[in-house]
Specification:
CATH superfamily of the largest domain: Fido-like domain
Structural class: mainly alpha
Helix content: 55-70%
Order of helices and strands: HHHHEEHHHHHHEEHHHHHHHEHHEEH
Shape: elongated
CATH architecture of the largest domain: Orthogonal Bundle
Number of helices: 20
CATH class of the largest domain: Mainly Alpha
Radius of gyration: 27 Å
Strand order of the largest sheet: 5-7-6
Oligomer: single chain
Distance between the termini: 58 Å
């Protein structure tokens, strides 16, 4: 648990009867820089305070400065106190970059705007998010095994694999639900998919936890980090959350990315289900981002970034709860996660593009294939759903029909193409694992 910040009223009691000290602290408030790290008391107490001030006085000044910038949201804690946030640096700049990159086509890598290749990256991202989101909740299996299960369609062998398959199906479903308003029924539907065949009590899928099903977030030493609101509040709290997600119950503009991040926090805070709350919370974040037109999030995995340092994820929740419901901590963390996830997508595409170029260079040295076959395979690597015909191959390379036919049949025999006859015409298409097959080709 983070160290609880000192109460403002306690610090006030110490300074109010000392006019000189009182005015010195207000001079500090006026002199605080507008930019800098947004520190929680848990971190600030290890930093050197301004000269002549104690850590408590420094904290008091920071809190006084922040209170005039806060904007409340309709989420409240168990005691009825509203949550709030402010837009602290570097959030504005990062929101601008997300708007530019994730909602439009500015500087977007060609492979994910190309209809011939974007599906490969889409499915790869869904698999990645399905695996890492499940691993955050305790799923234990290797990525290779999980990918093999999803790509081959074999049934899951254990609960971990079932969790991953459920997440994959959920993410595919989210893409189809993005234009639907958020409702309790839709959230229950998502929860049902996420927890299918993984709950001890099957009836717990797609319903609120009951009053006798006490759920807390804690560790193996029985330390409780979060005790969510009571079950009898869940119906009204989810109704308010849906209104917030659908932009019905807020005054003034809230940036769509901020709204999506708060939605993620909201469901995780309420913990309305006996299990699967974290996965549902992240799924709702994706639903919200896609519903606001950030189409790039079909290709991005935030859980992949979160999994690298899961303690920071948990701490972002705890910083908010332990500092007067200040959502700024969670927003700062989450915006950084988004920024890193976008960067990792670009780096992944760059690696794959370089790999394709390397394969194409290696193709030139494969004596088993002639120059016409190498040209076709090179094209197929970048157009995985292209259909090739004997006549089109004949025309492209100015050869006789029999030569063209033998070229394609030879590629099929080597396991690089598959064939299908439609009417009187044979069509040849690249195999799904073309890159792997080429790596084994002599």
């Amino acid at each position: 648990m983070p160290k609880q910040p000192p109460k403002q009223d306690v610090i006030w009691e110490k300074i109010r009867d000392d006019p000189e000290r009182f005015f010195r602290i207000y001079e500090l408030i006026k002199g605080l820089p507008t930019a800098g790290r947004y520190l929680h008391w848990d971190k600030l107490r290890y930093h050197q305070p301004p000269e002549g001030y104690s850590h408590e006085e420094w904290w008091y000044a920071l809190k006084r400065e922040r209170q005039f910038l806060f904007k409340a949201v309709p989420l409240h804690d168990k005691n009825g106190t509203l949550f709030k946030y402010l837009i602290a640096d570097p959030v504005p700049e990062m929101l601008h970059k997300i708007d530019q990159g994730a909602g439009g086509f500015i500087r977007m890598p060609e492979p994910i705007t190309n209809p011939d290749t974007k599906d490969q990256y889409y499915v790869s991202s869904l698999i990645q998010e399905a695996i890492t989101s499940s691993q955050l909740e305790g799923a234990a299996t290797t990525r290779e095994i999980a990918k093999e299960m999803i790509k081959t369609g074999r049934p899951p062998r254990d609960k971990s694999e079932q969790m991953i398959l459920n997440n994959f199906q959920t993410m595919r479903r989210i893409g189809k639900l993005k234009n639907e308003p958020l409702t309790r029924e839709l959230i229950f539907h998502i929860h049902h998919i996420i927890t299918d065949k993984t709950l001890r009590d099957k009836s717990a899928a797609g319903r609120f936890r009951k009053a006798n099903e006490r759920i807390v977030v804690g560790d193996m030493y029985n330390e409780v980090f979060h005790d969510p609101p009571p079950a009898q509040q869940l119906k009204s709290r989810m109704a308010a959350m849906c209104d917030f997600a659908n932009c019905k119950n807020t005054s003034g503009f809230i940036h769509p990315v901020i709204r999506s991040i708060i939605l993620h926090f909201w469901l995780a805070y309420d913990h309305p289900f006996v299990d699967g709350n974290g996965r549902v919370a992240r799924a709702l974040f994706y639903w919200s981002m896609l519903s606001h037109g950030y189409w790039l999030f079909e290709f991005i995995s935030i859980s992949q970034v979160i999994l690298k340092a899961p303690a920071k994820y948990g701490r972002a929740f705890l910083y908010t709860e332990t500092d007067d419901n200040d959502l700024t901590y969670f927003i700062l963390y989450h915006v950084d996660v988004i920024h890193r996830a976008i960067r990792e997508l670009h780096e992944y595409i760059k690696r794959r593009t370089e790999r394709l170029r390397a394969i194409e260079r290696e193709l030139r040295g494969i004596a088993a294939l002639n120059h016409r076959q190498r040209a076709l395979i090179s094209h197929a690597l970048r157009h995985p759903y292209q259909r090739y015909m004997i006549r089109s191959h004949q025309t492209s390379h100015n050869v006789v029909y029999q030569t063209s036919r033998l070229d394609l049949l030879n590629l099929e025999n080597r396991g690089l193409l598959t064939s299908q006859k439609i009417g009187r015409t044979w069509y040849f298409t690249p195999v799904g694992d073309l890159e792997e097959k080429l790596a084994k080709l002599d």
